[in-house]
Write a structure and sequence with these properties.
The complex is a heterodimer.
Chain A lengths: L1 H8 L4 E2 L2 H6 L13 E3 L4 H14 L3 E4 L16 E4 L6 E5 L4 E4 L5 H9 L3 E2 L12 H7 L6 H4 L6 E7 L5 E5 L10 H5 L8 E8 L1 E2 L3 E9 L2 H13 L6 E6 H11 L9 E9 L1 H17 L3 E4 L3 H12 L1 H4 L6 E4 L2 E2 L5 H15 L2 E7 L4 E8 L6 H18 L24 H14 L31
Parallel strand pairs in A: 2-4, 3-4
Antiparallel strand pairs in A: 1-2, 5-6, 6-10, 7-11, 8-9, 8-10, 12-14, 12-15, 13-14, 13-18, 16-19, 17-19, 18-19
Helix pairs in contact in A: 1-3, 8-10, 13-14
Chain B lengths: L12 E3 L4 H13 L4 E4 L15 E4 L6 E5 L4 E5 L4 H9 L3 E2 L11 H7 L6 H4 L6 E7 L5 E5 L11 H5 L8 E8 L1 E2 L3 E7 L13 E4 L4 E7 L1 H11 L2 E4 L12 E5 L5 H7 L5 E5 L4 E5 L6 H10 L3 E6 L4 H4 L10 H11 L15
Parallel strand pairs in B: 1-3, 2-3
Antiparallel strand pairs in B: 4-5, 5-9, 6-10, 7-8, 7-9, 11-13, 11-14, 12-13, 12-16, 15-17, 15-18, 16-17
Classes of the chains: A alpha+beta, B alpha+beta.
């Protein structure tokens, strides 16, 4: 098989050395797989050939962007070909009038915004990993980021996709015009974590840079006050562009590293940003300030772009700053209804205490998406089990509170077996049929998203009483 | 007994289930019997797609409850048969909106979702499919399937809610849906522009609509913002959002192109046709009973990556002109997907592009 791949891609773009396979067998999370071989295609035609070769040999394909994923979505757990998109990194065409661009899946998120900055445009989804993560990865994970509160996540910014299907054929789904007819295949592909097709090009929507912006930092003596501020702002009819919260432990970690003058004695800090015309941002920033003050906050408004950038640097380097707190960390991703934030935060600390783990919290307060970060030392005996137990307990609680398994990181392998917490066997079977319709032989990213055995009912049959599922 | 729903077509059997379990039993039987089923909400968008001659008409009129509303979470869960206007009125009382079509008439939420319809405010908030969080459908063979979640940020399994939007029942009847809400803006104004180009001076207007005589820009936000924008664009100002009435005429169309093609598109539709052009979105709804020229217009639209579809016409019209145009690619894949939800193809068979 490797010979056939080399015949198509050349020696240099087929990596079979133990080192290469080792490097590509892991993403940024905790799972490790075992790549059979790594291929680095440049063209859509090459991707098609790889799929055909994989089919001929009955080998699976795991697509990979930058490998910044945390849920093992790009980890070849069942061996197979790792298809790296890093060389498919061209921006093919920017349409400044329609504000769209055709890009390869390997284009780095931040690079796209940099390339369009001169036109007064940017790509709205801005995950913390945006300096490394790729558009293809954003599509696979329906990536979010702080500015997704008002803008929506990646799926709201993808108009069309060129994809290679499991049989090696290529097609384009979606359209540059609104409301394409037929089923919204584009819609279901975003967030499908590489299990339905391989994206070889994407038509993305670019967002006009806002004429003005105001960024505020508010700090509170209690998490409850911070959460009440979030609710109060939204109840007043303002949906900020971003509304981020960090707890004291996280703020201290960041301040130790960044020295940005963050208030380390506060129980929680809130970073709020509003965008729009000057009249709008002044009115909205004023409202946010008033609501925060009503909730016993102290407030600082960024006076200029430099201050604003520093505030955001603090937020976006939260995960990196934690490295000083402990040798290892497990970054969690859960989501609850916004009104359950305080309850969930309290549970996070309680679960941490129970299992002897340090918890640091940063989250997208506006949309209830939490990122509790568990700091620990993996060399301590029994620690990994504790971390896993705490993680499971947290996820179960979030689901019970009306949340979901993942706000942004995806299911991958990490949360695959927790899917029955959210979905019945009939629900999972329906999703398995979607997978089956796209990928009848299971060549793309097997063992991810859906638990094994999800596909279990006969077509058209009713579920018999007492059936084992 | 035939339910008292205006416009409900005649069929051998008509049913109006009141629970999803009843609907599931009904569809399971329909599937077993190989019946053709038409689903009827408010009957407002039945003009889209190929014609279906049903054996069974299912009215969703009794699946019309508001199930859960969390104003602080900005989500609402409703049954598919609930009226759009009814829902929006209730949400408005708490200063919220689901951003559903503004001139909804009798439309139901389920119908709007199934037909993939968006309101004019999509200019700012995006299409309806951007606000669906969770969906429960009853499939053609009587399974009750739920997907998504009741939170605004979610990557948990496949985005079936999005796939169901615009699927015209082929993936199941929408029995309930959880929608993301937005706050209603504090201030709003509608300005009839003297110079349409001045619409570009506004950052993210709610909508910009062109008709035969004028272009109107819809402003919404804080009071200060609306004042600032209204004075900047100039023209005749009215308070609030004055949406155009529905298009008259028996035959109406939707021309869809990338926004940069809108000027060209407006010049190509019959000059005497009443029309509503969403300038920042790329959609023109127009009324014209003429067939001549439509083949060319569709040819042009498709050549620039767009579509010309029929939204309403007499029965005989559909025999003369395909309602959708050239089918989209990946029809086999779409067939397989539909087969996974409706193996005997009972709900709206043949309605979708490609006759699937």
């Amino acid at each position: 098989m490797i010979e056939e791949l080399r015949a198509v891609l050349g020696e240099e773009r087929v990596l079979a050395s133990p080192l290469a396979r080792h490097l590509y067998s892991k993403d940024a999370g905790v799972f490790r797989g075992e790549a059979t071989v790594v291929v680095v295609p440049v063209t859509t035609g090459e991707v098609q050939e790889v799929v055909r070769i994989a089919n001929r040999h009955g080998v699976s394909i795991v697509a990979r962007g930058a490998g910044t994923g945390l849920a093992a979505g790009a980890v070849p757990l069942e061996g197979g070909i790792v298809l790296s998109t890093t060389r498919m990194n061209q921006i093919y065409e920017i349409d400044p009038v329609n504000r769209t661009a055709w890009v390869g899946p390997g284009v780095i998120n931040l690079d796209l915004s940099r390339a369009t900055a001169g036109l007064g445009l940017h790509f709205a989804p801005d995950p913390s990993s945006q300096a490394a993560c790729t558009i293809g990865g954003n599509v696979a994970n329906n990536s979010g980021g702080p500015h997704c509160l008002a803008e929506g996540s990646t799926v709201n910014h993808v108009l069309a996709l060129e994809i290679v299907l499991a049989d090696g054929t290529v097609t384009i789904v979606g359209s540059s015009a609104p409301d394409e007819i037929g089923l919204d295949l584009r819609g279901v592909l975003v967030g499908s974590e590489g299990t339905l097709a391989i994206v070889t090009r994407a038509l993305v929507k670019l967002t006009a840079n806002s004429p003005d912006v105001r960024t505020l930092l508010a700090w509170f003596d209690s998490v409850a006050d911070a959460a009440a501020t979030v609710s109060g702002v939204i109840a007043a009819g303002v949906v900020p562009a971003a509304l981020e919260m960090m707890d004291q432990a996280m703020t201290q970690a960041v301040e130790n590293w960044l020295h940005a003058g963050l208030p380390t004695e506060a129980a929680a800090i809130l970073l709020a940003e509003v965008v729009g015309e000057t009249a709008a941002v002044e009115a909205e920033a004023d409202l946010i300030r008033r609501v925060a003050l009503e909730n016993h906050a102290e407030v600082r408004v960024a006076a200029n772009e430099a201050e604003r950038a520093l505030l955001w640097k603090g937020r976006k380097s939260a995960f990196g700053a934690v490295a000083q707190a402990a040798p290892n960390y497990y970054l969690h991703d859960t989501v609850v209804p916004r009104t359950k934030l305080v309850e969930t935060m309290e549970a996070v600390y309680r679960i941490g205490d129970k299992h002897g783990l340090t918890m640091l919290n940063v989250f997208h307060a506006g949309d209830g998406n939490l990122h509790p970060l568990m700091a620990f030392d993996a060399s301590e005996p029994g620690m990994l089990e504790k971390v896993q137990a705490a993680a499971d307990e947290l996820v179960e609680l979030c689901v019970k509170l009306g949340g979901a398994l993942s706000g942004e990181h995806g299911i991958g392998r990490e949360k695959r077996d927790l899917m029955p917490l959210m979905f019945s066997p009939v629900d999972l079977d329906a999703q398995a049929r979607v997978k089956e319709a796209f990928d009848p032989t299971g060549v793309f990213n097997p063992g991810k998203v859906l638990p094994l055995g999800s596909r279990c009912f006969d077509v058209g049959g009713k579920l018999p009483d007492g059936a084992w599922v | 007994m035939k339910p008292d729903v205006p416009g409900l077509p005649d069929a051998e059997i008509t049913a109006a289930p009141s629970t999803s379990e009843e609907l599931a039993e009904l569809l399971a039987e329909a599937s077993a019997g190989g019946l053709k089923v038409l689903v009827w909400g408010g009957g407002t968008h039945q003009g889209l797609g190929h014609r279906v001659v049903p054996d069974l008409v299912i009215s969703t009129s009794r699946l019309n409850r508001l199930l859960a509303w969390e104003p602080d979470d900005m989500t609402v869960v409703i049954e598919g048969g609930m009226g759009v206007a009814d829902l929006e009125a209730r949400l408005a009382a708490r200063g919220q909106t689901a951003v559903l079509p503004e001139t909804a008439g009798e439309a139901t939420v389920g119908g709007v979702l199934a037909a993939g319809i968006s309101g004019y405010r999509r200019g700012r908030y995006g299409p309806t499919r951007d606000r669906i969080l969770e969906i429960t459908v009853v499939t053609g063979d009587g399974r009750i399937v739920k997907a998504g979640g009741r939170v605004v940020k979610n990557v948990t399994g496949y985005d079936l809610p999005r796939l169901v939007v615009g699927s015209f029942g082929s993936l199941g009847v929408v029995v309930s849906a959880c929608l993301k809400l937005w706050p209603r803006p504090n201030a709003a104004a509608t300005v009839t522009l003297n110079d349409p180009g001045r619409a570009d001076l506004v950052y993210r207007p709610l909508s910009v609509l062109a008709d035969r005589s004028s272009t109107r820009i819809f402003l919404a936000g804080t009071q200060a913002e609306v004042e600032s924008q209204a004075s900047r664009v100039g023209g005749v100002r009215e308070e609030g959002l004055v949406w155009p009435p529905p298009l008259p005429g028996e035959t109406t169309w939707s021309l869809r192109v990338a926004p940069s093609m809108m000027e060209s598109a407006l010049n190509r539709i019959p000059s005497d046709a009443d029309r509503i052009g969403q300038m920042t979105v790329g959609e023109i709804a127009f009324s014209s009973a003429r067939l001549d020229g439509m083949v060319d217009l569709r040819g042009w639209a498709e050549s620039v990556g767009g579509r010309l579809v029929i939204t309403r016409a007499s029965e005989s019209f559909y025999e003369l002109f395909d309602p959708w145009g050239t089918p989209p690619p990946a029809l086999d894949l779409q067939r397989r997907l539909i087969g996974a939800f409706d193996p005997r193809r009972v709900i709206n068979p043949g309605r979708l592009p490609g006759g699937i």
